[in-house]
Structure formats: structure tokens, C-alpha cells
Predict the structure.
Amino acid sequence: MERKTKVDAENGKQEILITREFDLPVELLFKAFVEPEIVEQWMGTKVLKLESKKHGSYQFETSDPKGNVVFRANGTIPEFIPNQKITRTFEMENTPFAVQLEFLEFEKLSEDTSKLVMQIVYKSVELRDQMLKMPFAHGLNMAHNRLQEVVNQLK
Amino acid sequence: MNLRRDVFQAIADPTRRAILILVASQSMTAGAIASNFDTARPTVSKHLQILTECELLQQQQNGREVYYQINAKKMKEVADFIEPFRNMWDDRFNKLEAIMKNYKPEK
């Protein structure tokens, strides 16, 4: 798989830039962030609420295979310009992590291609680094669990 | 699994980062490394010990001298800690692209 998604996390800054080009017209790319059923598919989360409009709000919920809720997030949408821009807050419920601010900018490159730039701003540099490392830590845990399984089978 | 966390603690220290940059260009003895710092020799030794324990540095015996060199493999692993985060978004966006390519408006 070609590496299309780029992540920039400059040292000492409290933001992350995620950039990606799509083989999609900008209208279709934008739609994927607006329609609840589509968001559910690619984000792998349940969409409890998604009001795609200025001053709207949203709420996502993710469950494990047994149906236990493992993650719930919500936010508001201070800025919404169709096919151009979504500005939204993102907050993980029942965690100590401060709310983050996300600027999504959609750009038409050609009739069939488009670009998304996602700027995520965190309360502090420390929090940004922590969030960056989360999938890394998760990967380590997964590796550790897998190891545990193998060890258990040996007994 | 503590090892990995120790790596991040190791590179969080400015003196240890400076040592890594210094040794990156050529392998050096503890004495040669220490001569680049105002810090007391035992302090530098302690830093070298930590860097060696978490495998960012390797020791190489050359006659009576012990040389320190960068463990390139380990350094790359540390530099790649952003990779899982990037992968997470790449997976999501790949899915998004695949879904929208097959998207048919209902009306």
C-alpha cells in the first residue's frame, strides 16, 4: 500500500498536521465527513449524533466485540462551510484529556482529486505527545497480549 | 515492555541527546565523550550506562579501549514511534476512499 497519509508533529509544538490526497472529487470527500452512516463505516465507530452545520454538535461511541462501550467522544462545530471547511472540538468522555481543536480544510485539486489538511491543536505539548504515542502504546499492549496468549498455550 | 518506555526517558534528557548526536558521527571512548562536556566524568558514565542499557548505544572492545557507537536499528525504532499514529489515520482514510469510490447517490 502506497503511503499517502502524512503526519507532521514538529518538536515542541502543541499541534499535529495530518495531510492526505484522495482520488475523489472534493464533494465526495466532504460527504464522508458529513453523513453519519458513512462516518460510521470508515471511522469504525457508532455515530450517536452528528449535526453537520454551524453551531451543530456530534457524539461518537465505540464498543468492543462484546458490546461494552470502550470509548465515547463528543464535540461542537463552530465553523461549517460545505466542501471547504469544518472546525470542530473533540473531547473524549470520562478521561482526563483536555478538549482538542480540529481544523479540517478540504481542497479541490482537480475534478477527480482532492486534499484534506487536518490540523489538531492540543492544550499542551505534553498532551500532544501523549496522544501521538497512544496508538504506539496500544500496539505494544497488543503485542504484549499476543505474547501472553502464546505463553498461556505453552502451559 | 518497560524497555521501550525507558528509551523515551533516555532521550528526554538533553545531555543524553547530545551524547547520541556526538557519537552518531563516529564511535568514541568514554573519555573522548566526556571531554566534550563540562559535566563530571562519573555523570557522563552514568548517562552512557543508561543509553547502553536501553540499547541506544553499543559497546565495542578495541584492544584495551571500549568504544561507544550508535545502535542504528534501535534509533530507527524510536524515530518511528509516530508511525502507528500515521498508520491509524492512513487505514481510516484508505477505507474512506474505498467507500466513496463506490458511493452511489440515492437520487
In short: Chain B has a mean pLDDT of 83. Residues 83-101 of chain B form the longest helix (19 residues). Helices of chain B lie at 2-12, 14-25, 30-34, 41-53, 72-79, 83-101. DSSP finds six helices and three strands in chain B.
